[in-house]
Design a protein that fits this description.
Blueprint (H helix, E strand, L loop, with lengths): L7 E4 L6 E9 L3 H8 E3 L14 E8 L2 E11 L10 E8 L1 H13 L3 E2 L4 H8 L5 H12 L3 H11 L2 H26 L5 H6 L2 H18 L1 E2 H6 L1 E7 L5 H9 L17 E7 L2 E7 L10 H15 L3 E7 L6 H7 L7 E6 L9 H8 L5 E2 L8 H12 L8 E2 L1 H22 L3 H19 L7 H6 L7
Bound molecules: guanosine-5'-diphosphate and magnesium ion (MG).
Length: 458
């Protein structure tokens, strides 16, 4: 694995004009570099002469020229974010000053930091495990209370502790099996049962599957859950889209085929970011060219959704076209919505029940604004967004958790086959997956893939 040891420099504040800007250095030469570019105001002392982890007012200097006034804080390894020597300089938030300051750092021997390199170093120096490092990025990108809460609890070690707990259980079980292999005269299931390995293993499988089941993707929590509104033309999809957003984003009209493109807009419900997607009516695949394209776009949007709300026009009831359109929902989580309840309903309960396949349809009226908040609640419940005590995981972590579960289940199967060597092998694979989750095992360019998604300066 490639990881460089030079001293890195970066602006930690975004480009543009602001009251203050922060430039940070990390690496063995940080303080030496700061010595060439900073002097305290009164005593003219160099950063290396200052007590570390204290703040001092001074000037950023380029030879004799004063570039800006600034506050400095030096931190000696290992007592810093990265675990290396670090310097933080708060100057004025002008692009001219920041870029000049970065150039000065570079002339004095620093290299520009890559995205996430400070956090990557913190991870490599054992300041945090990989689940905590990934959560730092989630925290920065979080735009809702829900995502922030989860990210901060991951930084505090929620996932780290979970992985450690499972690892301990797997290691104990593997030790029992390995002892059997070494000392056991006969390696059969009865023998393994005597030391309790199978029941321990089942407990770990249950625990792992529970975590997978209750986890939700950080990508969805941060970028927003995609909820597609779909149904036949004129069912009131755009009206519902606008009602849920509480502003008139899409054009609505009684002329079928008003919505042609896929329109997206986001809102926060119960602290969770939801990205609603309005689509053109389904069931027009055999119509004119534009209707056809619109319908295909709708189907694509449905396929990539976290949830679909299928709108039924209650005043015309369920039609054969609805049944045809429902096929696009194959494999997608969806909820039925009956719209236009202010009009006379075509309420053939059996037909509705049959269409909904056991799901509870939510009645709304977009015109009277009735049932909208109930629907919003049903949506967040269906997404599981509001559920406390669930683990926010990245796509990467979820894949590894699934592989972990796979290895544990293979181990359980090999116990039944009385093949303890294979049980031990599978448990070894399980440990490898756990290691990749928290970074005890680093494989290929795994770290680059994680940290390239960070901001520069973090
Ligand atoms: N009475 C009544 N009409 C509605 C309701 N929701 C939508 N409509 C009407 O149904 C027509 C189609 O609505 P629109 O939202 O454009 O449907 P879309 O084609 O599914 O996007 C418009 O004339 C709306 O005013 C409702 O709750 N009650
Ligand atoms: Mg529409």
């Amino acid at each position: 694995m490639h990881s460089r040891t030079e001293t890195i420099a970066a602006a930690a504040t975004p480009p543009g004009s602001s009251a203050l800007g922060l430039v940070r250095l990390s690496g063995p030469d940080s303080i030496k570099i700061a010595d060439t570019i900073f002097r305290t105001v009164k005593s003219g002392r160099k950063p290396s002469e200052l007590a570390h982890r204290t703040c001092h007012v001074g000037a950023i200097v380029d030879g004799e020229e004063v570039v800006d006034s600034a506050v400095i804080c030096t931190m000696k390894a290992p007592l810093s974010y990265t675990g290396e020597d670090m310097v933080e300089l708060s100057c004025h938030g002008s692009m001219l000053i920041i870029s000049r300051l970065l150039q000065l750092c570079r002339s004095a021997g620093a290299v520009y930091a890559e995205p996430g390199e400070f956090t990557k170093r913190a991870f490599l120096n054992g300041k945090m495990d990989l689940t905590q490092a990934e959560a730092v990025n989630s925290l920065i990108r979080a735009r809702t209370e829900g995502a922030r809460k989860q990210a901060i609890s991951l930084i505090s070690g929620e996932m780290k502790n979970t992985v450690e707990r499972i690892r301990e259980m797997v290691e104990e079980t593997k030790a029992l099996i390995d002892a059997d292999i070494e000392w056991g005269e006969e390696q059969n299931i009865e023998f393994m049962e005597k030391n309790g390995a199978p029941s321990r293993l089942n407990k770990i499988i249950r625990e792992t599957d529970r975590i997978i089941e209750q986890s939700y993707l950080s990508e969805s929590a941060i970028e927003g859950y995609r909820v597609v509104i779909c149904g036949l033309p004129n069912a009131g999809k755009s009206s519902l889209f606008n009602s849920l957003l509480k502003f008139s984003r899409s054009i609505t009209s009684r002329i079928p085929g008003t919505t042609r493109d896929v329109i997206e807009s986001e809102t926060v419900i119960d602290g969770y970011l939801v990205r609603f997607v309005d689509t053109a009516g389904l069931g027009l695949e055999d119509a004119g060219e534009i209707d056809k394209m619109s319908a295909y776009r709708s189907i694509d949007a449905i396929k990539s959704a976290d949830l679909a709300a299928y709108v039924i026009d209650g005043s015309s009831g369920i039609t054969a076209k609805d049944h045809e359109a429902r096929e696009s929902l194959e494999g997608v989580k969806w909820i039925p919505v009956i719209n236009k309840t202010d009009l006379e309903m075509q309420t053939d309960r059996r037909k509705i029940k049959d269409f909904c396949g056991g799901k509870k349809a939510i009645p709304v009226s977009c015109v009277k604004k009735k049932g909208i908040s109930k629907l919003a609640k049903a949506i967040t419940e269906e997404l599981g967004a509001g559920y406390e005590g669930r683990l926010m995981v990245s796509v990467r972590q979820k894949e590894l958790l699934e592989k972990l579960s796979g290895s544990l289940k293979s181990a359980a199967a090999e116990i039944k086959n009385s093949r303890s060597e294979l049980v031990s092998f599978e448990l070894g694979c399980a440990l490898d997956m756990l290691g990749r989750i928290d970074g005890k095992v680093i494989e290929g360019n795994m770290l680059d893939r994680i940290f390239e998604r960070f901001c520069i300066g973090k």
